[in-house]
Every structure is written in C-alpha cells, then in structure tokens.
Q: What sequence folds into this?
C-alpha cells in the first residue's frame, strides 16, 4: 500500500478531545463527566467490563451523541459528520456477520464508501489483506475463518483506505501470541503516528 496521507504537521491541536462528556442510557451511566485530549501517537484505554470504553469509542466515532459535554475529532464534532468518515479506520469488538462472502469481497465492498472503484478497489483490498497475513485465504468465505482470521479481516478493512486515525476495540482478541506479535510489528512499520483508543 502507498504511504498514509497522515502528516503530523497537519494536526497541531489534539486529534481527539472530550470535554466534560457524559452519556446516559436512561438510568445507567455510560460515561460520566469525562475529559481527555489525545495527540498523535499510540494510546491505550484500559478498564474493567462496563467501565465505558466502548461507549467512549462510539462517541468518538459519531455513533452516539453525548448528553452533556463536547467532542472534537480533528477539530470537528463527529456526530452526523460524514466528512470525518474517510479519516477514520475502525475495528469493533463485534464479530463479523457476513459468513457467506470472502474477506476480499467484504473489504472491496467497504472501500466503495471511500470512493475506491473497480480494479483500484480490488488491488487495494488485496494489499490490505496481504498486510494482515490473509493472502492465502482472502477468497474463502469468512464463515470458514477462525476467530483470529476474522480479526485480521477486520483490521484489513480498517487500514485499507489509509485512514488518518485508527480506533481499535480489542484488536488482538482471538489472536495467538505469534499473530499478536506480527500484527504489532505491522502497525509499527506502518508508522501512522496515530491514536489507537482500544479496550483492554
């Protein structure tokens, strides 16, 4: 894949800003008066189950709207902001639900939302799957994959369009120690200098 579009000089301010953010689910508190500023670099967010890590990721990516406080990603509110879409790469903790299509078909389809078409979309999807070590299985239905292989496919779709910011929710879940090491090295070699809010 070609080098990322990301340039640290473009973002003098924090890439992610949460100021006194609260999110409520009726009587349940998801996030309570949370403030955080993250600049370029690799960051991890740790905490027990139910502590609000996934809620925070959903807020940062614009999937949820805060009840109180403000959120800025690259200086813009993520809620309802389609312009931020192409700048983000997201790996969710949920399982891949498309069992009857191949990883290549899945990644290629998602690239169309980032204006990749035809042969360019196919080649870009192949390159991303090669980076995560799925070159020999990219044509197989994802329903035949192990959990670790599905995690690799999820990472491939997140990096394929060369986002400025990767947000990973339990990205190494299901990977054996060797695969975790390989993918960590790949992230280092990619040299995005991005933020990686991730669950423990």
A:
């Amino acid at each position: 894949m070609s080098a990322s579009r990301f340039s640290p000089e473009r973002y003098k301010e924090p890439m992610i800003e949460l100021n006194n953010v609260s999110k409520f689910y009726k009587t349940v508190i998801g996030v309570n008066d949370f403030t955080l500023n993250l600049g370029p670099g690799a960051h991890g967010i740790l905490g027990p189950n139910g502590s609000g890590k996934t809620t925070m990721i959903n807020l940062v990516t614009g999937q949820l709207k805060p009840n109180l406080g403000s959120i800025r990603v690259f200086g813009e509110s993520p809620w309802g902001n389609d312009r931020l879409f192409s700048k983000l790469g997201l790996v969710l903790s949920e399982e891949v639900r498309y069992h009857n299509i191949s990883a290549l078909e899945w990644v290629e389809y998602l690239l169309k939302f980032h204006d990749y078409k035809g042969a360019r979309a196919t080649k870009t999807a192949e390159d991303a799957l090669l980076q995560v070590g799925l070159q020999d299985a990219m044509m197989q239905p994802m329903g035949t994959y192990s959990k670790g292989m599905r995690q690799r496919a999820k990472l491939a779709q997140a990096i394929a369009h060369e986002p400025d910011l990767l947000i990973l929710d339990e990205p190494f879940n299901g990977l054996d120690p060797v695969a975790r090491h390989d993918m960590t090295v790949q992230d280092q070699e990619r040299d995005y200098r991005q933020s990686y809010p991730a669950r423990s």
Remarks:
- Residues 118-131 form the longest helix (14 residues).
- Strands lie at 16-25, 28-38, 68-73, 88-91, 165-168.
- The helical segments are 53-60, 103-111, 118-131, 147-159, 177-190.
- The domain at 8-190 is CATH 3.40.50.300 (Rossmann fold).
